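lol ok so funny story. i was supposed to be doing the assay writeup but got distracted and ended up predicting the structure for this chain instead. priorities right. anyway since i did it might as well share w the group, maybe its usefull for someone
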Amino acid sequence: MTANWDNVFQSIREIWIPAVGVVVVIAIVAIVFSRLKRKGN
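and the output, tada:
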C-alpha cells in the first residue's frame, strides 16, 4: 500500500509541478498583457 501511494504521489508531483509552472506563467503573461492594454488605452 505505502509503495503504491508513494508512486501515486510521485506521479502527481511530476505532473503537477510543470502544470503549476505553466499556469503561473500564463497568469503572469495575462496580467502583463492587461496592464499593457490599459496603458495603451
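Residues 1-41 form one domain. The chain has a mean pLDDT of 90.
back to the writeup now i swear
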